[in-house]
Amino acid sequence: MRKLSFWSLCVSCRSARGAGAVGKMARVGLGAWVPCRRWGWMAVSFGFHRGLSTLLASKAERAPRWLPACRQKTSISFLSRPDLPNLAYKRLKGKSPGIIFIPGYISNMNGTKALAIEEFCKSLGHAYIRFDYSGVGNSDGNLEECTVGKWRKDVLSIIDDLAEGPQILVGSSLGGWLMLHAAIARPQKVVALIGIASAVDGLVTQFNQLPVEAKKEIEMKGVWSMPSKYSEEGVYRIQYSVIKEAEHHCLLHSPIPVNCPIRLLHGMKDDIVPWHTSMQVADRVVSTDVDVILRKNSDHRMKEKADIQLLVYTIDDLIDKLSTVVN
C-alpha cells in the first residue's frame, strides 16, 4: 500500500459514489477555504501520516471482506472481579493488534457496529473483544449505581485481564470518552483509537447547557430526566450524583496526553453530540497523527451501511499502519 503525507491542517474531500458535481466549500479549524465537490465524508488531517483518503480511494472498488450473513455465534463469557460486578464479554482470539469495542451509554455488546467489527476481525484473523458495562446487558451490577468512573474501571479491567498485546480501541459515543481515559492510563497497551460520535465530556456539557432554574430543580430532585429518542421511555433518568462524579473525568479543559494515532468519525446530522466535539478532541490531544472524518448525512448512531464500511476501512487502515511500523 502506497504512502501519502498530508500537510498539517489540510482538508481532503473526495466525491462519494454517484455524487453530483455540486460545488461546495469546506472550512476547518485554521485551514483556508478549500473548494471541493459534494462529499459523502470529509477528512481533516492534523500532522504527518498515511492518508485515510488514499485508503478509501483504493478500497472503494473492491468488495468488503466480511460477510455478516454468515455470522457465527460467539458464546458469552464472564470476567470475575473481586468487589466489582462481573462483566459479560465475547472474545475472538487472533493476531495483534487486537480490537476492543467500547459501547455507548446503556448500549450493549450486540449492536450493529460491535457485530460488524467482529465479522471484520474474523475475516482478518485478528483478536477482538466486545463487552457489556456494569449494570448493562448481561453484566452484573445496578445501573443506578453506575458512574463514568466505574465504567472507566470496566474498560481497564477488559484491557488488563482479557486483552493480550497491543490494542486498538473503538469507542462509540460514551465509549469515545472512555477510550481516551484508557489510552491515558494504559499508554503501552493502547496503540490506536477510533472514536465514533465521541461524547467526550458529553454528560457534563449537556447538563451545563441547561437553564439555571432547570439545573437547580435537578439538584433538588436528585435526578435528571434527560430527553432521548433512543430510550423507550423517551428519557434517560440520570442521578444528579452521576453528573457531579462525571465532572472529575472531563478532558477538554486541558491538553489530553494521548500520543497514539487517532481517528474520529462523526455524523454532521448528529443531534446528540455535535460534530464540533470531535474537532475539540483533535485540537486537545497531544498526538499529531489525528484524522477527523465527517459524514454529511450521518446521525449519532452511525450504523448505516456506508457508516459501517467507513468504520471497518478505518480499522483496516490502522492495522496496516501499525503493521508497517512494527515491520
From TrEMBL:
Q: Which GO terms describe its molecular function?
A: hydrolase activity, hydrolyzing O-glycosyl compounds; mycophenolic acid acyl-glucuronide esterase activity; palmitoyl-(protein) hydrolase activity
Chief subcellular location: mitochondrion
Which reactions appear under catalytic activity for this entry? mycophenolic acid O-acyl-beta-D-glucuronide + H2O = mycophenolate + D-glucuronate + H(+); S-hexadecanoyl-L-cysteinyl-[protein] + H2O = L-cysteinyl-[protein] + hexadecanoate + H(+)
EC supergroup of this enzyme: hydrolase
Spell out the subcellular localization from the entry. Mitochondrion
UniProt cross-references to InterPro entries, sorted A to Z:
AB_hydrolase_1, AB_hydrolase_fold, ABHD10_acyl-thioesterase
Q: Which GO terms describe its cellular component?
A: mitochondrion
Q: This protein's superkingdom?
A: Eukaryota
Chain's role? Acts as an acyl-protein thioesterase that hydrolyzes fatty acids from acylated residues in proteins. Regulates the mitochondrial S-depalmitoylation of the nucleophilic active site residue of peroxiredoxin-5/PRDX5, a key antioxidant protein, therefore modulating mitochondrial antioxidant ability. Also catalyzes the deglucuronidation of mycophenolic acid acyl-glucuronide, an active metabolite of the immunosuppressant drug mycophenolate.
Q: Which family does it belong to?
A: Belongs to the AB hydrolase superfamily.
What is this protein's record name? Palmitoyl-protein thioesterase ABHD10, mitochondrial
Gene of this entry: ABHD10
